[in-house]
Amino acid sequence: MTYNTDYLTRCIQTLDESIERLLRAEENSMDYEIFRNSAVKSFELTLETAGKLLKKSIKPYFATNKAVDKLYFKEVFRYAAKHGLIHVDEVERWFEYRDNRNNTAHDYGEQFATETLRLLPQFVIDAKNLKKNLDAAAARSSR
After folding, report:
1. What is the model's pLDDT at position 128?
2. Residue 1: pLDDT above 90?
3. Does residue 58 lie within any of the structural domains?
4. What is the number of domains present in the chain?
5. Residue 139 buriedness (CB in 10 A; 0-12 / 13-18 / 19+)
6. Which of 2, 10, 20, 111 has its CA 20 to 30 A from that of 143?
7. Which of 98, 100, 103, 64 is nearest to 78 (CA)?
C-alpha cells in the first residue's frame, strides 16, 4: 500500500507556524485572533488528514477495503495500535483530540478555543510521531 504523507507534513508545518505566531502575538489583538483561529483550523485539518492516512495504512490488515471504509475514526486508531502503527498510550490522546474536534463543530466560543490550544503542544508531537510511523510503514510495504 502506498500513500503520500506530504500533505500531512504541510498541515503539521502550518500548525507549528500558527502556534509560533500566536505565541508572539499580543493577547486580545487582531493578530492573536487570526493566529488562534489559524491554529484551531490547522489542528482540525491535521487531525482529519492523519485519520485518512491512517485508514489507508491499515487496509493491508483487512480482507477488503470496504471493511476498513466502514470503520469509525476511533476504530481506525485502535486497529493502528493493534498493528504497531501507533503506540497504545497515544490512542487515548488521539481520542481526546477527536472529541475536542467534534466539540469545535458545535461550540464556537472562547472555551473551545482555549481547550484546543491546551491540547496543541502534545498534538503536534503525536502528529509528527504518526507521520514518522506512516512513512516507516510505507517504506516497509514497498520493499
Report:
1. 97
2. no
3. yes
4. 1
5. exposed
6. 10
7. 98
